[in-house]
């Protein structure tokens, strides 16, 4: 498939994910505005960070006592999912220069990763991934700007609904990947259940790590059994 | 220090950490070699990470949020339309006050 066709397919496949991100961006923009952050700075954070989970989390760390190291450690704990996606994407981006691959990394998110991994057509995966990621980023930024401008006009019910739609988005991304890859349900279910159990006794980030570890054990046994 | 100044510092930190995680993963993934076992493991791990993030959120769900999640999943599995599924779930969330009135 040519670059242009791959680009078009990337945009098309990512459209629903981009709109979803845009809706979530509205909530982020409104949250930024409620703290007195300008729409321009909120949008800049989206462009430079492009990770909704860490951006939302850090909004709660701007009050006294402000601590840059705490923000750095929290960001690292929340962003480790991006590391795993980076590892997974390496295979899809082979054949491109290191500069191109590294320059494409800022658009790596749950949505762009899921769309690329789930794509079965013989596309130019680099072009597909970059176009999908840029499209999601464009609507994420637009949603944030809209949310910042509409802040105060949004009803509490709408804000509450948008907040949970982040969970819906993640659940649907998971279903998308599971449906289109041979991974099966066991690994992610083991991760989810372990994270639930571990988060009862451990801080949430450690519960998350325990969940990922449990999932990796299930995958490893699955691989060995298949061999 | 104003909130915007603090946020600007936070943006710098988040940007470095987020890019470092993405690029670090890419570098590690590129050096994994051709081991199909490791490759398969690392291809599935991000989905496990999503599951691990989702799990604790699901425990704290309200009844309406649970209905919204089930509706979203069923619509997606039946139609394969991502946006339709998300819109259905969000519609359930937005109609919370009516659902509660009906259930009461």
UniProtKB/TrEMBL annotation, chain A:
InterPro entries: Brnchd-chn_aa_trnsp_permease. Pfam families: AzlC. Its main location: membrane. The chain crosses the membrane at residues 66-86, 127-150, 162-181, 201-223. The keyword Cell membrane applies. GO terms for cellular component: plasma membrane. It comes from the Bacteria. Keywords: Cell membrane, Membrane, Transmembrane, Transmembrane helix, Transport. Belongs to the AzlC family. PANTHER family: INNER MEMBRANE PROTEIN YGAZ (PTHR34979:SF1). This is AzlC family ABC transporter permease.
From TrEMBL, chain B:
It holds the Pfam family AzlD. Keywords: Membrane, Transmembrane, Transmembrane helix. InterPro entries: Brnchd-chn_aa_trnsp_AzlD (IPR008407). The chain crosses the membrane at residues 7-29, 49-75, 82-103. This is AzlD domain-containing protein. It comes from Siccirubricoccus deserti.
